[in-house]
Structure formats: structure tokens, C-alpha cells
Fold this protein.
Amino acid sequence: MKINPALYYSNEKIINALYEASKDREVQIWINDLRGKRPDSVNFVGDILAFIKQGMTSMHISVERWKDPMKLRTGMTKAELDSLRKGWDLILDIDCKDLEVSKVAAELVIEALKFHDVENISIKFSGGSGFHIGVPFECFPSKFKGQNIVLLFPEIVRKIASYIKEMIKPYLAERILKIKTEDQLKELGASLENFDPFKIVDIDTVLISNRHMFRAPYSLNEKTWLVSLPIKSIKNFNIEDANPKVVKPKLGFLDVKTPIEDETKLLLVQAYEWASKEESKKPQLTSLPKVAKRIPEENFPPCIKEILSGIREDGRKRALFVLINFLLNIGWDIVSVEALVNEWNKKNYEPLKEGYIRTQINWYKKQHRVLLPPNCTNEMYYKSIGICKPDSFCKQIKNPVNYAIKRSRTKKQSS
């Protein structure tokens, strides 16, 4: 589809919709593959017009609401971020390359929210093949478990997302199996045997973090040139509705019509109770034998070597998550991990912000346990990022850590 972004964004109603969506949020514009500065913000309609003149193809806005977005900077401490944050919204990002499956997942998420008495639910097509389900900050209690709820981000959103994901899992599997054939599942990277719906569709939990952004309502998507469109219902949505040539802004996103006092209270209580039970089930240490001496790069599996050569498209944060957990499990100390990660970051198509990496490393420094990276079968990591290039040795293992340990032992035995 050929589209002139400047012409699309010249519509006064589109401009006003972007302006309303940007209030109190950090903003970043994209010009095709080039990402604009951060932080940035919108204070007047004229700011949107200036973005259009710069060649804006899409606008992304923060999940968090800020007192002054322009005071944000990389490397801020949690206390500094907490003092600047004035609110946040619950955004559940449903991602699947198959629109039909995304619709099923989105419908179930909405059902789960309504089951917990949540009424103010916003729905937005992502512009690609997924959906954003949102609940505005005004629908949350001012305090929860004795704490100012503003300060509970991002942990509170991660717990809600994980809880809903687990809640809908069996129903999602059942519905997908009704609409997809075995061959169609194979094309999506799954099989009927021990079918896990989250191998083909995901509700983002890992990447929910401070200063996390999502595509603004009525912004274009550069990959499809469709509009990220607020909609009334999933069932009645047709992808042609998102054609920029026919889009007419009518709905807002995260608008609060009639906020119900503490309408998310039940959801919060249930999500935290579930998260507490799940936490108690987690092993305190990895089940693999402890590695006494760090394993060198020559014994790394192909996927890790692919990561270390630099990420060429989307997936840098997921790759970082894999890389850190992998290294910590094979005898690397956190100082060595930090040094390697910083060198790796320079090779990416666009380096991650130094502050983001620093925050991740600092978090690991405080942990008293080592968890494994995702298993090789986790579709949202290795295959999705494009780093799964197995060799003959990969057939014997289920996790990159197993590969490194077995490869190292094999070499020692043969020497």
C-alpha cells in the first residue's frame, strides 16, 4: 500500500487525536527506520505540526504519565523515576503474526478483565497484526497494599499481565485449535502435540519496563502503512477499517467515560495472590549443576553467537535478557557479563540506551539466585528474533546453557 504520511497526518482530526493521546507522556517520533530523540513531549498542537514537517511516519508514547517528560534522562534511579511519574496505564500488548489468532487472544483478555469487574476497557488495533488492550490509570485505587499505586510500576503491570496470560491459556489453546488446522499451526511454528498457545501468540510481560512505549492511537505503522486504530469491538473489526484512506477519528484510547471507584481492585488482589503463589514455586537455584569455571565463547551455542554478532532487527531487549541469564549460568561473573554486554551493544543495528543496560545489570547484581534463559522451544525468543540456527549438537539439548556445558565437557573428554 502506498501512502503519503504527511498527507495522512495533515488531517486536523488526526492531529488533534495525536495531541490528546500525548498529554503528560514521553513521546518519540519515527521517520521510517530512524528513531527520534528521547525524551520528547507534546505541549501544543503546533508540536505535532512540527513533527509532521520533520517527516514523521509514526508516533510512540509512554505507558507512564509524567509530571514533566523533558526531565527524563538515561540512567535515572528508581527513586528519581518514581518522583517524576504521575501515573501509568495498563497496556496489554497482544502480538501474533496471524490476525485471526490475535483476535481470539484479545477477546479472551477482554473477557478476563470483565470477569474481574473492569468496565473501562480500551481496544486498539496495533497497525500490524496485534492489538493493545488498555485500562486507564483513573480506574485503579490510589493505594494498594499500603503503597502509593504510582510507585508500583512496572511490577504491578507485569503481575497483572502474567496472571491474565495464565488465566486464559487453556481457553486460548482450545479456541485456536478450533480455527487452525495442523498445517496452519506448523506454519505458525507450533504443533498439536502438547500445544502451547503462547508459542504463536504472546502477551508481553518481559519487556514491560520503565519508559516503555507503544504506538500512539491513529499513528501509522511503517511495516504495513495501516493505522493503529481505536475500535469498539474485536469481533466487528475488519483490517480494511485501518486503511489510512478511510480512517476517520471517532474513538479515543484510554478515555475514561464513567470511572468506577476502585473497579480494578478485584483484579489487583487476584493478580497479586496468584503471583505470590507462583513465586513460592520457583526454585531458588538453577537445576543445572553449578559451573566452577567460566565457559569460553568457543563453546557457546549458535544462537548466542548470533546474538553476539549484533541484532539486525527488532529483538534487542529479548536478546539482552537471554544473553545475561546465559552467561551467569555458565560461570561468568556479573562484571565480565557487563563488559561483554556493552561491547555487544555496539554491534546492534541501533544500540540500546546505556541507561537501560545499566538498569538491567544493576537488577541482576541484587539477585540471590540464577535462573535459566528461556528454553530453545520458546518461539518468542530465538526463532522470533531470527537467531535460531541450530547445528547438529543442538539436537541433544533443550536450553542454550545445556549446550555450552555439554560442549565444554565433550571437548575436555576428547583432549
Observations:
- The longest strand covers residues 58-66.
- The chain has two domains: 62-275, 297-409.
- The CA atoms of residues 113 and 283 lie 30 Å apart.
- The radius of gyration is 22 Å.
